[in-house]
Amino acid sequence: MRKAVIPVAGLGTRFLPATKAMPKEMLPVVDKPAIQYVVEEAVRAGISDVLMITGRNKRALEDHFDRVPFIEQALEAKGDHTRLAAVREASSLADIHYVRQGDPKGLGHAVLRAQSHVGNEPFAVLLGDDLIDEQDEVLQEMARVQAETGGSVVALMEVEPSQISSYGCADVVPQADGGFVRIHGLVEKPAVDEAPSNLAVIGRYVLHPRVFDVLAETPAGRGGEIQLTDALQTLATAEGEGSGVFGVIFRGRRFDTGDKLSYLKAVFTIASEREDLGPALNEWLDSVRTPANRV
Ligand code: UTP
Predict the structure, then answer these.
(1) Relative to the CA of 9, which ligand 1 atom is closest?
(2) At a CB cut-off of 8 Å and minimum separation 6, what does 49 contact?
(3) What is the mean pLDDT of residues 16-38?
(4) C-alpha 180, offset from chain centre
(5) Whose CA is nearest to atom 27 of ligand 1?
(6) 123-138 pLDDT, tens digit each
(7) Residue range 233-249: average pLDDT?
(8) Cβ neighbour number for residue 162 with a 10 Å cutoff
(9) Best mutation site among 26, 101, 107, 215 for ligand 1, i.e. most ligand atoms within 8 A of its Cβ?
(10) Residues 179, 153 contacting (CB under 8 angstroms)
(11) Sign of CA dihedral 122, 210, 248, 108
(12) CA dihedral 6, 208, 204, 233 (to 10 degrees)
């Protein structure tokens, strides 16, 4: 698996007005934009080629992964090598390409825009606002399952049953060995009482390129958008090369930085574990949690 597709063309309405003029993927999580963590995760999984599906208002993303000579010169002149390395890191992570989605007609439509860049090989899709713990190697495990099964693979996470209507939901059959599940059916954002399980699809996929042909034929579904979930449902029940959808159950930490509360949890969690910020932040958090200090 050499290539990753990162769709970042969504409107980010849940985070308005912060995302009125700035992409939600550029919101800082401590001192890096959320999207940089996602690209770093892809690179850790051995990916060297990243295609971002962008849209209007997303130029800041391209600038972030580009060189900025005048900042680099200023830091070099000051001898600030630590910051210089941090600034250069984003522009040397991977070979990053961009294509615009045009109308944001859904995640499936965004993925379909990657067809000519990806060609005929399995590829990863990482949602640009989903952060996964750095220690976790779910993408590597998904690539292994894709190679073993020849189908497509999604990451699944157990959620509280009341939360399932915010996610795509999977109807699964555990496989006897191999540590993954086979997916029979997928429903996008089901009503709580109609959900086939509490297994939610999270923003990591390793897809067989057959998904492009299916997406091209997939009509607009829920919310008038072309849903990746609907294309995966078709692949789950199809036959022949590239058919079958499998799930790897993710049990680690994951944050949706497009959601305000989850974004705040990401910032506090990551900061509180950093050597430079953690001790002081944790001390302050403990002090404000002490009843005597509550307003
Ligand atoms: P979301 O539904 O989380 O993104 O889509 P959104 O539409 O930006 O968010 P809200 O609900 O309005 O706050 C999941 C991912 O798919 C991308 C988004 O950028 C996000 O990474 N996406 C979604 C696209 O690239 N294009 C689309 O048409 C829709």
Answers:
(1) 25
(2) 2, 3, 4, 94, 95, 97
(3) 94
(4) 20
(5) 106
(6) 999 999 999 988 889 9
(7) 94
(8) 10
(9) 107
(10) no
(11) positive
(12) 110
Query: Considering the domain boundaries, does residue 281 fall inside one?
Result: no
Q: Is the pLDDT of residue 233 over 70?
A: yes
Provide the residue range defining the domain that includes 63.
Answer: 3-258
User: Is residue 186 within 8 Å of residue 245, measured between CB atoms?
Assistant: yes
- Angle between the N-to-C axes of helices 260-272 and 278-289, in degrees from 0 to 180, rounded to the nearest 10: 120
Q: Which atom of ligand 1 is nearest to the CA of 127?
A: 21
pLDDT in tens, 151-179: 999 999 999 999 999 899 999 987 666 68
Query: Does the predicted model carry a pTM greater than 0.85?
Result: yes
Tell whether 142 is covered by a domain.
yes
How remote is the CA of residue 281 from the centroid of ligand 1, in Å?
Answer: 32
Mean pLDDT of 32-58: 94
Spatial contact of 143 and 2, defined as CB atoms under 8 Å apart = no
Q: Which two tokens stand for residue 89?
A: 């890191």
The count of domains in the chain is 1
CATH code at position 145: 3.90.550.10
Distance between CA 4 and CA 205 in Å, rounded? 10
3-state secondary structure of 140: helix
Residue 282 lies in a domain: no
Q: Which amino acid is at 46?
A: G
Q: What is the distance between the alpha carbons of residues 173 and 184, in angstroms, rounded to a whole number?
A: 7
pLDDT at position 162? 92
Among candidates 117, 142, 288, 276, which has minimal Cα distance to 207? 142
Query: 151 C-alpha to center of ligand 1: Å?
Result: 25
Contact 201, 176 (CB under 8 A): no
**Cα 286 from Cα 294, distance rounded (Å):** 11
- The pLDDT value recorded for residue 133 is 86
Neighbouring-strand partners of residue 96: 50
